[in-house]
């Protein structure tokens, strides 16, 4: 009898733990303390309804064909990852480039596991739609796949100092570029203190331009974030970054050094 | 004896296990302490949102400094955000680890989700009414508003389930910033109240180009006559204005209806010609408006300082600014006799902690944020309205309202017109029902407009079949079939009823205890009999 009781109690304990682990329909939110239910709402908003089928309908484009495509057109390109912003809710924003041009791929659908593999030089095939947000031409609603057995390519920064202020600069949009001998006019944290983006106003001659340290690309722990934060008005610097656009040139700075 | 001990230990283990399953991270419900212990030091965190506006940041910092001067034993650590969604996500993450902030800027939709954690957010009614530390309380060290001095409409927006879980901090609504010059150039006259028909018609009329591909109205290659910043709000207001379903108070999803389809067909028609676009797809409406590339720009009244040819805040190059007359109007309406517009803006909620004294310190700080100095200063940074009559009625604020247009900075005319728009329409504002999942429904409402616009531009056929699929996709994407109704925010006992399996197990345990009792009694009787027999 005692043995039976002990066994019954042990079984009860096991069943009790099992019951706690598996919510039944009738309990819903009532039996948990952490708000796990609603926290996931909306997080699957990564894929447009038909993006995944585009790869079958559109052939891989050259950069020239991509550049010529209309806004909202379906596009498929192959390019090499140069950098990524932080992975977030199954999405990642990618700076990609090939020998002919560069692409900004905004919030591309991507698992966290795949995001870790998007290292500089990795070749990917991207399927999405061409868009333009505040002057920045980008691929949106994109999916991607790794190009198996592909070579790698890491871009050298293109010196575009002489193009600042000209209509030709935008032709290099999204490429890794460098500027020599820019004068710092203002350093301003987006929130007034370190942590968020840094707005950097630079001058070349009489003209001023707005650059940015994008915290999702180079967070406050990075050398460039710290280095830019220490710059003072009047410093003359060389800047490297991705030629992003926001209502005009708005380079996302990846490196800064005192002018040579 | 060993076996009895084992059985007892097992029973205790079972009970402990069950207890652990139900509320391992539970914090006791907050009870207002008798008094605030000023001999102790408190460190509280405040997560605040600003509109990428350094003046607002500085007002937060000044408020903290002033508060700390009054309460030297309370240190407030400020964490800044520029996005409500980021605060929401961070709070969700931190509820699970028990590391929520003490006070944070929030929307009631978000609080409904926070409240799925037991005792996570402090109900404020007890604090409001507290004689010493409540609104206007005798022991409060600053001149705060009484409950009656908070605008009732705004305060009622903070009620969830019959209790206040927040206090309003600032209020705004949406406005349509109109390039009146272009409207008149197109041969139209602005009506007293803007209607949807008028906006769609003028927008389509503006799409005419010359032989070089330039739009006639602005002479440029770019023109998007109608741009909406928040498509969530767009859908919500369009439905409300037509008395169409969105969601019931208890969270029943009603948005998938014929009126929604008609709205989406209007969106399709606007998108097809390029006359309509959204912030998510092309950028800030203000930038297009100020460049003479937009005629109707709908954005928050809290974005008014970015609107117009002379706006104090501008993101586009000076050479791209175009001179025009700006009209600040209510969002387009279906029924001009009964205008309806959304009430929005930040509120403040207080998170529960193990230490009631820490919660009380947090409440005092939250309350300080609705004192006159903070309210007036912050509201003047944008087209916000103070949430208390105490602040609104001060000579200082009334003077401010009367000086619109004196300069293009502090007294910027468009900002003050936007403020006046809300002050004149408080009775015409509304909020959407709040329940666990209402934030998802809001996202879904906007997503449908975004999807229809994209689909139209991408050559898809947007018809009834498309709508049916869209409804289905959005339901699935945002899990709308799992929210609302009885699963919504009920406010009943937070743990609710035990699952059937647990009930069965507890009854089993009770049964086993009875069996053990019977067995022990039988053994006792048997041994006593044996003892008696041996004695005889």
Summarize it:
Chain A is of the alpha+beta class and 260 residues long. Helices cover 17% and strands 35% of the residues of chain A. Chain A has two domains: 51-146, Nucleic acid-binding proteins (OB fold (Dihydrolipoamide Acetyltransferase, E2P)), CATH 2.40.50.140; 158-258, Nucleic acid-binding proteins (OB fold (Dihydrolipoamide Acetyltransferase, E2P)).
What does this structure look like?
The complex is a heterodimer of chains A (about 260) and B (about 525). Chain A has about 260 residues and is α+β, with helices and mostly antiparallel strands. Chain A folds into two domains: about 100 residues, Nucleic acid-binding proteins (OB fold (Dihydrolipoamide Acetyltransferase, E2P), Beta Barrel); about 100 residues, OB fold (Dihydrolipoamide Acetyltransferase, E2P), CATH 2.40.50.140. In chain A, strands 6, 7, 8, 9, 10 and 11 form a six-stranded mixed beta sheet that branches. In chain A, strand 8 and strand 9 form a beta hairpin. Chain A starts with a helix and ends with a strand. About 15% of the residues of chain A have low confidence. Chain B is α/β, with parallel strands linked by helices. Chain B has two domains: about 200 residues, 3-Layer(aba) Sandwich (D-Maltodextrin-Binding Protein, domain 2); about 230 residues, Periplasmic binding protein-like II (D-Maltodextrin-Binding Protein, domain 2, 3-Layer(aba) Sandwich). In chain B, the strands form five sheets. Chain B has a five-stranded mixed beta sheet. Classes of the chains: A alpha+beta (about 260), B alpha/beta (about 525). At the A-B interface, helix 1, helix 2 and strand 4 of A face helix 1, helix 2, helix 3, helix 4 and helix 18 of B.
